[in-house]
Design a protein that fits this description.
Helix content: 40-55%
Shape: globular
Number of strands: 13
InterPro entries: SBP (IPR006059)
Keywords: Signal, Transport
GO molecular function: maltose binding
Number of helices: 19
Organism: Deinococcus indicus
Radius of gyration: 21 Å
Pfam families: SBP_bac_1
Length: 411
């Protein structure tokens, strides 16, 4: 009882500017994604001017490098005060099940987040009714980006299905576009695979796949792999050497026509490249995924043993606040996780994403941690690598099913 009272008291720490000490925040937001994080840090420093903030960023797309460093620190007993993780199974299936995170139920109650965040999102970040992280945003993964002026010049429109995409690919190649689709390093190819598979299976079967009701070896999933291979035949051959930003650049300069990437690309186009939505860059749901919103959320949790626990709790309070989310998301290209966001602060893309978030079927992203544990994702990249080289759909499906069984998917 005494321990519970102490925890409740700690979580009710006053948010006055008298907080002092240090705060280490650990993320993979660097480079073009840095300004959005800096906007949050600036707000925190204004509220707690005596706190020294250590922005411990480890660069690398989708957090691939950061997760490796985090694992070493968490297992070594030196966790950051708070760290970025994709909301859902990436955090829950790794660090929550290992007993290394604090339950944030008291904080959610005191801050009113059980009412501010959508029910589907609360379910994603919770186990047994207990929330484990604070989502600062919602990203959409299934977006196809293009340059409106270039499509007009080529005389093509945005394809609505993957078979239509393949026809458009043939048309563009005949017009001299060597790689109608641009992809980058391995994780961006997994990202593309996700949109191709959802566009092939449909939202319901995508959910069945992660519930264990549909096996990877099912003919429908094998067919999805085959379609992915045909789509990759439309892509650039130097993919492994490109970051997601470099891949995005090829759409803007007209080297390629399309790129399937999450809507952090909207932040890159608008914030870094200073391009106007609908003229400098355009977007549409990835083929076959109209009316489906494939979501992921960046979130921060509270590790057990955090050195600066009070400062970390105040950081989480800022992350979940309306002011914090509306400062961060317009720069990041994402929308607020809260339902009371001030949409006047967002550009045309952000407003369109917010409307889709409210009206579309919502499913979780594989590549960005929502539907499968890290044990599956850490090995799935090799399956995609092997498939891209071999184009063996049945073999890739069988390998993925073995991973699913080992990761306990569906159990």
């Amino acid at each position: 009882m005494k321990k519970a009272l102490l925890l409740a008291a700690a979580l009710a720490v006053t948010t006055s500017a008298s907080a002092a000490g240090k705060l280490e925040i650990f993320s993979w937001w660097s480079g073009d994604e840095g300004p959005a994080l800096e906007a949050l840090v600036k707000l925190y420093k204004a509220k707690y001017p005596t706190v020294a903030v250590d922005n411990a960023t480890v660069s690398g797309g989708a957090g691939t490098n950061a997760k490796a460093v985090l694992k070493t620190r968490m297992l070594g007993g030196t966790p950051p005060d708070s760290f970025q993780a994709h909301a859902g199974q990436e955090l829950i299936g790794t660090w929550v099940v290992a007993g290394r995170m604090e339950d944030l139920s008291s904080l959610f109650k005191s801050e009113g987040w059980d009412k501010a965040f959508p029910k589907d999102l609360l379910n994603l970040i919770s186990t047994n009714g207990k929330p484990w992280s604070v989502p600062v945003n919602v990203h959409r993964s299934n977006v196809m980006w293009y340059n409106p002026a270039k499509l007009k010049a080529w005389g093509v429109t945005v394809p609505k299905t993957w078979p239509e995409f393949l026809k458009t690919c043939t048309t563009l190649k005949a017009k001299g576009v060597a790689a109608p689709l641009v992809v980058g390093e391995n994780w961006t190819q997994q990202h593309l695979w996700e949109s191709v598979m959802i566009g092939t299976l449909g939202a319901a079967n995508w959910e069945n796949l992660w519930a264990g009701k549909l096996k990877f070896t099912d003919p429908k999933v094998v067919a999805g792999f085959t379609t992915f291979g045909k789509v990759m035949d439309c892509a650039n051959k130097d993919a492994s050497g490109l970051s997601w930003q470099q891949a995005s650049d090829r759409v803007i300069d007209g080297t390629s026509a399309f790129n399937v990437m999450g809507d952090w690309a909207a932040g890159y186009f608008a914030t870094t490249k200073k391009l106007a939505p609908n003229t400098g860059f355009g977007w549409a749901p990835a083929p076959g995924t109209t009316k489906t919103f494939v979501m992921l959320a960046d979130s921060f949790g509270l590790p057990k043993g955090a050195k600066n626990r009070t400062e970390a709790i105040n950081w989480l309070k800022l992350m979940g606040s309306k002011a914090g989310q509306d400062a961060f998301n317009p720069l990041k290209g994402s929308i607020a996780a809260r339902t009371d966001s001030d949409l006047s602060k967002y550009n045309t893309y952000g407003k369109s994403a917010a409307a889709d978030w409210k009206s579309n079927k919502i499913v979780g992203s594989l590549v960005h941690g929502a539907v499968a544990p890290e044990s599956f994702m850490s090995a799935f990249g090799a399956v995609i690598d092997q498939y891209v080289s071999s184009r063996n759909s049945a073999g890739a499906a069988a390998a993925a099913q073995q991973l699913a069984v080992r990761a306990g998917i569906g159990k």
